[in-house]
Amino acid sequence: MPTTAPRYELHYWPSIQGRGEFVRLAFEAAGVEYVDVGRLAPEKGGGERALLAFLREQSLATPPFAPPVLRHGELVVAQSANILLYLGPRLGLVPDDEPSRLAANQHQLTLGDFSDEAHDAHHPIASSLYYEDQQTEAKRRAAIFVAERMPKFLRHFEQVVARNGRGGGRHLVGAELSYADLSMAQVLWALEYAFPKALARFTHEIPRLCALRGHVAEQPRIAAYLRSERRVAFSRHDLFRHYPELDLDSP
């Protein structure tokens, strides 16, 4: 008798996009069924309590430090880039050759660094402190982020698209949509929310990234997801946060 394939379970905070959104986008683009455990009703075995209980589970041979965490059958793997390294080939979201798979992982890791720096623009001292407790330091950090770091990352990824001869000017890796493209679009959407003035000032320098973002948004499954209730809204509790005083429209 045929056996039922194990389901994909994503364990992440239910009320934010955060780093778990990179994984959600991959599932949505591939059109596969998955369980977003944190967003599942408690009576169905989900919710934040279920997430915290899973993170404390003593039977895990390699305990995760923090979510997101993927469970697929007996496999448990954490870290967004690591999860996508595993999922990419299985969901058809990365080319078959090893150099391309390594390149996609490299870009995902760099996007993780970019996201961390965006977070540190509003929480430069400690995540455990309120924004209001470090607002002076945040203004200094954000000024550097929008003037130096954000342009450096965006110029880098614009060059990546330009050098990808198979990508038609809208892919980071290969000739088809990859999880790296999905994550790049997510970072651009997040920057548009958190730093709209700063990003608008810089848009003319990244036409290929803008084309990539548009191409991702036009994918039928992604377009439907972005309109759905499954897509958590951006907020000031998330990885990318909008504070008008941090969004500078000039260096």
How does this structure look, described?
A hairpin with a 2-residue loop joins strand 3 (69-72) and strand 4. This protein folds into 2 domains: 8-91, Glutaredoxin (3-Layer(aba) Sandwich), CATH 3.40.30; 98-219, Glutathione S-transferase Yfyf (Class Pi), Chain A, domain 2. The mean pLDDT is 95. It has helices at 20-30, 48-55, 80-91, 98-122, 135-163, 179-194, 196-202, 207-218, 220-227; strands at 8-11, 34-36, 69-72, 75-78. The chain is globular and about 50 Å long. The chain has a 4-stranded mixed sheet with strand order 2-1-3-4, with helices on one face. The chain has 251 residues and is mainly alpha-helical. Helix content is 51%, strand content 6%. Helix 1 packs parallel to helix 3 (80-91), helix 1 (20-30) crosses helix 9 and helix 4 (98-122) packs parallel to helix 6 (179-194).
Can you summarize this structure?
With 251 residues, the protein is mainly alpha-helical. Helix content is 51%, strand content 6%.
List keywords for this structure.
Glutathione S-transferase Yfyf (Class Pi), Chain A, domain 2, 9 helices, globular, Glutaredoxin, single chain, 2 domains, mainly alpha, 251 residues
Low-confidence stretches: none
- What's the total count of β strands? 4
Rg, rounded, reads: 18 Å
Helix share, percent: 40-55%
Please list the strands of the largest sheet in the order they lie side by side.
2-1-3-4
CATH fold description of the largest domain: Glutathione S-transferase Yfyf (Class Pi), Chain A, domain 2
Q: Sketch the topology as an H/E string, one letter per element.
A: EHEHEEHHHHHHH
CATH architecture of the largest domain: Up-down Bundle
Number of domains: 2
Give the class-level CATH name of the largest domain.
Mainly Alpha
* Strand portion: 5-15%
Structural class: mainly alpha
**What is the number of helical segments per DSSP (H or I, 4+ residues)?**
9
Overall pLDDT level: 95
How would you sum up the major sheet? 4 strands, mixed
